[in-house]
Amino acid sequence: DKCHLHVIARRGYPLTSTPMLWFTNTTLPPTLLRQISIKLMIKAKEFVGQAAIFDLMEYLAEGLASWQKQFMDEEALAEKSSEAAIEEVESEDEIDYYTT
Length: 100
What we know:
The protein is mostly helical. The chain is about 60% helix and about 10% strand. Strands 1-2 form a two-stranded antiparallel ribbon.
C-alpha cells in the first residue's frame, strides 16, 4: 500500500518552527505509525532554521524498512514472552487429581 507524508508549514517555518508532519499508511499498525511520527518530529527539530521537507522525506524513506523490521521483532518478542507467562501460570494451576 502507498505511504503518504502530509506536510503543513506553520507560521515561522523554516526559520523558527518545524513543519507539522502526518505520515499515513493503511497497512501499518497504529503503534508503528506513532513511533514513525515521533521519529520525524525529533528529526524535524534538528532542522529548525533551514528548509527540511526534502531531508525529512529522505530520512523517512531510508529508515522506514528498518523501523518496520524492528517493530515486528519487538512484537514477536513480546508475544513469545506473553505466551511463556501464560504457560507458566497454566502449569502452576494444574492439579494432579490422581496423586492428591
